[in-house]
């Protein structure tokens, strides 16, 4: 029986040694990661002539849910086409509309509710594409996005319907 206890003690000591070794390796790796240089993308040349990241703006807010759905479908198709052409696209309406459809609580559809989210995403973009669906000139959201794009120095492109 004594041999079994020694064996268990030895096994425990061995396991504790392994844990201590792994802990030291993790601490060492963590320190190395903290010291690793941060890579900043300063060139979008890898896109081979394509814009960096496109923020695709479109009018959306409307009292009629059929109009909102029609706008959602149109902008999602345009985003899909841009992606098929090799572009990197963020479509806030595509994302927001889908989130609203699958949310347990209804999400607001107005520009004010989505402003902080959309601004944060736009800060990652290089271009603002405005898809000129009916109502784009009166859209509070599109106007706000255009103002942000100017502040951020994004290239602004207007796309015909």
What does this structure look like?
This protein has 161 residues and is an alpha/beta fold. The protein has two domains: 39 residues; 115 residues, Hypothetical protein PA1492 (Rossmann fold, 3-Layer(aba) Sandwich), CATH 3.40.50.10400. A four-stranded parallel β-sheet has the order 2-1-3-4, sandwiched between helices. Helix 4 runs parallel beside helix 5. The longest helix has 34 residues. About 8% of the residues have low confidence.
Which labels suit this protein?
5 helices; alpha/beta; 4-stranded parallel β-sheet; 161 residues; 2 domains; Rossmann fold; elongated
Bulk shape: elongated
Give the oligomeric state of the chains in this entry, treating copies of one chain as homo and distinct chains as hetero. Answer: single chain
**Level-2 CATH architecture of the largest domain:** 3-Layer(aba) Sandwich
Question: Over the alpha carbons, how many angstroms does the gyration radius reach?
Answer: 26 Å
CATH secondary-structure class of the largest domain: Alpha Beta
Strand order of the largest sheet: 2-1-3-4
CATH superfamily of the largest domain, by name, is Hypothetical protein PA1492
Order of helices and strands: HEHEHHEHE
Strand content: 5-15%
Largest sheet: 4 strands, parallel
Unreliable runs, pLDDT <50, ≥5 residues? 36-48
Structural category is alpha/beta
CATH fold annotation of the largest domain: Rossmann fold
- Rounded average pLDDT: 79
- Number of helical elements: 5
Q: What is the total domain count?
A: 2
Helix fraction bin: 55-70%
